[in-house]
TrEMBL record:
InterPro entries: TMTC_DUF1736, TPR-like_helical_dom_sf, TPR_rpt. Its EC number is 2.4.1.109. Residues 61-132 form the DUF1736 domain. This is dolichyl-phosphate-mannose--protein mannosyltransferase. It comes from Larinioides sclopetarius.
Length: 582
């Protein structure tokens, strides 16, 4: 637009005279005016080319791939494709002329395809081209001032719209109101020029004034009303559905909002409507299955996922056309496998689904993570470890991957390696809470002096971040016990109980600590609470019996504690027998 303005709008000189002077003059040097203009044009072209180059680099040197739901006409054949593309010009022109029915999403089946030349909507397309022809004709016949105004106006309407018109390449939408922002400037210029012509005529001046007042009032009311529609996602999708019942994506989006509002049954109805409109769209099935799973209707959820599986192309086609495997296809395998894996007896079946997803997309890291979890439940720790390593090949900047791998190594007793992976996770995300906690636990159990101080620092860092949990307080208490700081340990255990009054570990460790500090009365109180909630807690029973023997000197009560808890192993009773002198 700046290039056209610079090229056609004269500044302080007659453009034709300057060009004639440049051609006829014997001097090889152009005039200063022309040199300045060439410089400005060169800068504009250079900036435009550089911007296009940077944009091309940003999208990876290739055009994005859209599916048939984003822009149905783009996958249609002649004449449907070309007739629909041309009809969309009329739709956009009508949105400029009469923006009454607005919608946040015009994709999918919002606008039915124009399948043949006999469709009555082709008259709208013809009307658009006739209007453009008439405007161009008017431009050519106008005087210089009028010509420049109309030329800039029509340029603002047409040129910014070309990238969104499917003329250069298919776009990922049918109609998008946002691409009309700049064209609307040119449209306003055309309206303003037309209004000024009416105003200049005496017999139409009053009508022009009334007309512009009417347009301004109606436009202001529409703006206020539309602002209310954009108040939040719920009002936005509600307003869109009031004018557009042919777009399954809108029903899906409204369902998502209702899910977030915990209105699951209403969300399910919207997802069902989406599936009714677009029965081949897997996303609707995924959403329905997720809600049914949340509602514990597992059998129905699995049936929905199985139906979605029938919509997928065969494995041979998928392997040959891997580029067409969409995220929805892959998510289907994950959702179904996750549902099945809730049944311990069907873990192998879930594992097979994860393997199938990885065949379709070898770089699908979510599938590696989920499959590793299933393998761990199948006690296949080594295979799970291999899955995490494979995932790291495709995503080495994910702190969760390093953390999960560290947990697997920790379960295998490879604590040194586990700490290394926890540290790598913290290098990527210094506030990664789980890595801070698990590494601190391992460092606490290590024999390296510096590790114990580092463990305390990491646990305190979690607290500084506002994550005050029972587990953190317990681990800090254990660290304090290990450092012989019993007052601090008691403080941490009591804080853990403030977070969770029936915490098994906090109750036992506090009772043990109090017992070792010869505060048996307090220890008995916490042991009673512990055994009231966890009557089979063996360490608690042992400590309780020990207090009765050594502090209360009541051997019968100690024996009764042991025998009354259905805990009658020989080595536990043996201790009492030795004390009694049997």
């Amino acid at each position: 637009m700046c290039f056209i303005y610079e090229l056609f709008v004269p500044k302080r000189s007659n453009r034709v005279h300057s060009i004639r002077h440049l051609i006829l003059s014997r001097s090889s040097m152009p005039s200063p005016w022309w040199r300045d203009k060439l410089l400005r044009l060169t800068i504009l072209v250079s900036v435009a080319v550089l911007s296009l180059h940077l944009r091309w680099k940003m999208i990876g040197g290739k055009l994005p791939v859209f599916n048939r739901f984003d822009n149905p006409a783009s996958v249609s054949k002649f004449p449907t494709r070309h007739l629909t593309y041309n009809y969309l010009l009329a739709v956009n022109a009508w949105l400029l002329l009469f923006p009454q029915y607005l919608c946040c999403d015009w994709t999918m089946s919002t606008i039915p395809l124009v399948n043949n030349f006999w469709d009555i909507r082709n008259f709208a397309t013809i009307a658009v081209y006739i209007s453009l022809f008439y405007i161009l004709k008017t431009i050519l016949r106008s005087n210089n001032e009028m010509k420049i105004t109309l030329l800039m106006a029509i340029s603002l309407v047409v040129i910014p719209f070309i990238p969104a018109s499917n003329l250069l390449f298919p776009v990922g939408f049918v109609v998008a109101e946002r691409v009309l922002y700049i064209p609307s400037l040119g449209f306003c210029m055309l309206v303003a020029r037309g209004w000024s012509l009416l105003f200049e005529r005496r017999y139409s001046r009053n009508w022009a004034i009334l007309g512009i007042i009417f347009v301004i009032i109606i436009g202001a009311c529409k703006i206020v009303r539309r602002n209310a529609d954009w108040q939040d996602e719920y009002t936005l999708y509600r307003s869109s559905l009031s004018v557009n019942q042919r777009n399954g994506k809108l029903f899906n989006n409204m369902g998502r909002v209702l899910e977030f509002l915990n209105r699951q049954e209403e969300a399910l109805k919207h997802y069902e409507n989406s599936r009714r409109i677009e029965p081949n769209d897997i996303r609707s099935y995924l959403n329905i299955g997720r809600v049914l799973t949340y509602l514990h209707r597992y059998k129905e959820a699995e049936e929905i996922y199985r139906k979605a599986q029938t919509l997928l192309p065969g494995p041979e086609i998928q392997l040959q056309q891997e580029i067409h495997v969409t995220p929805s296809h892959l998510q289907l395998f994950l959702s179904l496998a996750s549902l099945i894996s809730q049944n311990q007896s069907r873990l192998e079946e879930a594992d097979a689904l994860y393997r199938e997803a990885l065949i379709l997309r070898a770089d699908f890291t979510k599938a590696y993570l989920s499959r590793a979890d299933v393998l761990l439940r199948l006690n296949k720790s080594k295979e799970a470890e291999a899955m995490y390593y494979r995932a790291l090949e495709y995503d080495d900047s994910n702190p969760d991957l390093y953390f999960n791998l560290g947990v697997v190594l920790m379960d295998q007793g490879r604590n040194t390696e586990a700490i290394e992976f926890f540290n790598k996770a913290l290098d990527l995300e210094p506030d990664h809470e789980k890595s801070l906690e698990f590494s601190a636990v391992l460092m606490h159990s290590s024999d390296i002096p510096n590790h114990k101080n580092l463990a305390k620092m990491r646990l305190e860092k979690i607290l500084d971040g506002g994550k005050e949990t029972e587990r953190i307080y317990i681990n800090l208490g254990l660290l304090s016990v290990n450092n012989q700081n019993f007052l601090s340990a008691e403080k941490w255990f009591r804080k853990a109980l403030q977070k969770h009054s029936t915490s098994r570990e906090a109750l036992f460790n506090l009772a043990l600590l109090l017992s070792e500090q010869h505060k048996q009365a307090e220890a008995i109180f916490y042991l009673n609470t512990l055994l009231q909630h966890y009557p089979g807690h063996i360490s608690g029973l042992l400590l309780f019996a020990d207090i009765h023997v050594n502090y209360l000197k009541n051997l019968e009560s100690a024996e009764k504690i042991v025998s009354s808890r259905t805990w009658k192993k020989n080595h536990n009773n043996c201790r009492n027998c030795v004390i009694k002198g049997y």
